[in-house]
Design goal:
single chain, 143 residues, 27% helix, Beta Polymerase, domain 2, 5-stranded mixed sheet
Length: 143
């Protein structure tokens, strides 16, 4: 089976098990009760608004919704002209936005549901001067 057009090897060159420790720490933290911080609209929305106000921002905010479990849904619209929209460009815009509120350890998963693209962002501070905590944000992009 090929992994991409022109792939002749059908396999990689190495594993990445030597980088699993931070991922495992994030997973362990995610399983901790009360790890997700409260009031994401207070802690995260200002950073998101500031990032999206930057000149040339590819995304525009359409709304925010905070759930009781601390998860923040951010509804966004791709503001680039249709002929400039690419999956890689959208991914770059979403990662840049995630960087505006991301903590030291961050996981991002892209999902697609028809015309809607969603980026699940789990980000957390696992140690340091503040008590370990995290955030869960769904960036939902339509159009």
């Amino acid at each position: 089976m090929t992994r991409w057009e022109g792939d002749e090897r059908g396999r990689g060159v190495a594993g990445a098990s030597h980088h699993t420790a931070p991922v495992e720490r994030l997973l362990e933290a995610m399983r901790t009760p009360d790890w997700v911080a409260e009031e994401p609209e207070v802690h995260l929305v200002p950073h998101i608004r500031e990032a999206l106000a930057a000149p040339g921002a590819a995304l525009q905010v359409e709304g925010f919704e905070a759930a009781a479990n601390g998860e923040l849904a951010v509804r966004l619209r791709d503001s680039r002209p249709a002929n400039q929209r690419t999956p890689a460009g959208l991914r770059a815009a979403a990662f840049a936005l995630a960087g505006s509120f991301g903590e030291m350890t961050t996981f991002v998963q892209q999902r697609r549901d028809g015309a809607r693209v969603e980026f699940l962002v789990v980000t957390g501070l696992l140690d340091g001067r503040f008590t370990p905590h995290g955030h869960v944000v769904r960036l939902v992009v339509v159009g």
